[in-house]
Amino acid sequence: MNPPFDARMKIIVIGSGFGGLSAAIRLQAKGFQVQIVEKRDKPGGRAYVYEQDGFVFDGGPTIITAPWLIHELFELGGKKTEDYVQIVPIDPFYNVRFEDGSVFRYNGKREEVIDQIRQFNPDDVKGYERFYEKTAAIFKAGFDLIDQPFTHLTDMLKVAPNLVTLRSDRSVAGFVNKYIKDDRLRQVFSFHPLLVGGNPFQTTSIYALIHKLEQEWGVWFAKGGMGALVKGLTDLFQDMGGTIRYSAEVDEILIDADADAMPRARGVRLKDGSALHADTVVCNGDVAQAYRTLVPAPYRERNTNKHIENLRYSMSLFVIYFGTDKKYENMAHHEILMGPRYKGLVEDIFTKKHLSDDFSLYLHRPTATDPSLAPEGCDSWYVLSPVPHLDGDADWTTMAKTYRDRIMQYLEDRYMPDLQKHIVTEHYIDPIHFRDTLNSFKGSAFSVEPTLFQSAWWRPHNKSEDVEGLYFVGAGTHPGAGLPGVMSSGKIAARMIAAG
User: Fold this and answer.
1) pLDDT value of residue 170
2) CB 132 within 8 A of CB 188
3) Alpha carbon of 160 to those of 141, 166, 251, 293, 450: distances in Å?
4) What is the bridge-based pairing of β-strands 33-37 and 10-14?
5) Nearest-angstrom CA–CA distance, 88 and 228
6) Residue range 455-481: average pLDDT?
7) Which residues contact 217 (CB under 8 A, 6 or more apart)?
C-alpha cells in the first residue's frame, strides 16, 4: 500500500541527540529522505562521549528506562536491538546515601524495597504500599499521554478530567509526603524529578510515574556506555539510507515567506554559509535558543523573545569526569549522595538561583557494570552537581576550579578514601558549556522546567505554531526531558509529519 505522502520529501533534522535520532529513524522508515546535521564532531547531543587517556565517559544521560522505545526503533529498521547494542539490567538501580551513614538500596524487587523501608521506618510500609497503588494509576494516565501531541487546546481539554482526578496540581514531594513520614524515605521517593530537570517541590505529581516505570520495567545500561546506544542508533539510521553531516552547525532555518500563507520552513543555512534545502525541518536543538537564534523574529508571532524569556527553565549542572587507577568496589553503578539539606538546597537552585555551600550529588560508576570503559584495574566516573542556571549568582569563569575542589574533597572525606591521590585523568563541564557548546538558553541542562503549567499543551509544541513544516523534539518540548520523553517527542513529530 502506498504511503499517503510524497516519499521523495526531504527532511532535515537539526541535532543528533536521542530526540533527533528517534525522529530521523522513524521518518526514514516511512520512506522520507532524511539528513541529520550535527554541530559537533560526532553524534549524541547531550549524550556526547568523551574519551581520555584510555577512559570512556558518557557526557550526559546514563539511565535507560522504558526499553521498549529503543526496541521499537530497531524493529522499524527490520533489526533487533542486540544486532547493534546490548542493554543489560542494573541492580541496584541506585544506592541513596545519607550523611547519617544510612544507605537505601533502591531496586525493582518489591519485597527488598519494602524490607529497606521497614529498616528505615516500619511505620512507613503501609504508607508506601498506598503510594505505590496510586503511582500505578498515575502511570497509566501519564504514559497514555507520553506519545500524544498537544498542539490544540482541545487536546488538553480531553485529558483535563483525568488530571484533576489524579491531583496533578500537587507536586511530587507533596504527593510522596502524604503517604511517607520518614524524612530520608521522602527523599528516596521524590528525587526523581531532578533527573529530568524538575524541582520535586514544584514538578507536577504526574512525574511520580517514574517510580512505577522503574519498578515495573527496571533500569538498564548499554554495554560500552550510552555512547554505544547512540552509535547503534546512528548506524541503524545510516543502514536504512539516512545521512549525517558532522561539524555542521546551523546558523538559520530558511523560511519561505509567502504573504498570502503561513511562513514555511524550507531548509537550513549552515555557519559555513552553505544552504541545505528540505520540505520539512525537525529541530532537536534547545527549543528556546532555536527560536531565538534560528528563526527570524518577524516569523515568530507566538514564540516571541518575550514569551520565551517568560518561561521557567530547569537548573544547570556541574559535571566532573574523572578516572582513577584504583577500583572503589564499595560504590554501585549509580549513587545518589544526599547532602545535609533537601528542600532548602532545591529552593536555592531553582528559586533563589544561589550556589550553596552544600550540595547533593549523583555519582556514576559505569565500570561497576562494564569494566571495558576504563583501563584494567581502573574505574571511570562522573560526579554531577545540580546548580542554578546562568541567571544565578555564580561566576563560573572564576569559581569552577574551587567548586570542583570542594566536590572532590567531599567525596574523599565521606565515601572514597585517598580519592585525589588516585585520579589519573579528568575534565569538567559547567553551565557555560551548556550555553556555548550545547546551545542551551541560560545554560539550562534540561530546557523548560517541568511544572504543571509548562507541561502538555502549555509546553512548547512539537509542531511550530509560527512556521509551517517546522517541528521540535527533545527535552524542551512535549513530553519533556529524560530518555523516554525525548524519544517519544521524536515519535510524535514523525507521526505528525507522516500524517501531513
Assistant:
1) 83
2) no
3) 11, 10, 39, 34, 17
4) parallel
5) 12
6) 92
7) 65, 66, 67, 68
* Closest to 356 in 3D by CA, of 379, 388, 313: 388
How far apart, in whole angstroms, are the C-alpha atoms of residue 451 and residue 206?
10
Q: What pLDDT does 209 receive?
A: 82
pLDDT digit string, tens, across residues 226-237: 999 999 999 999
pLDDT exceeds cutoff 60 at 164: no
Task: Please count the other Cβ atoms lying within 10 Å of the Cβ belonging to residue 252.
Answer: 15
In tens, the pLDDT along 32-42 reads 999 999 999 99
Cell numbers that stand for 32 in this block: 522520507
What's the rounded Cα separation, in Å, for the pair 286 and 250? 12
Amino acid at 183: D
Domains in the chain with CATH codes = 10-48+66-86+223-311+450-499 (3.50.50.60), 108-216 (1.10.405), 315-436 (3.30.519)
Q: Give the helix ranges, DSSP H, for 92-225.
A: 110-120, 125-143, 153-165, 172-179, 183-188, 209-217
Residue type, 70: I
- Is the overall model pTM greater than 0.85, yes or no? yes
| Model confidence band, residue 195 (pLDDT cutoffs 50, 70, 90) | very high
Q: What is the sign of the dihedral through the CA atoms of 14, 20, 24 and 26?
A: negative
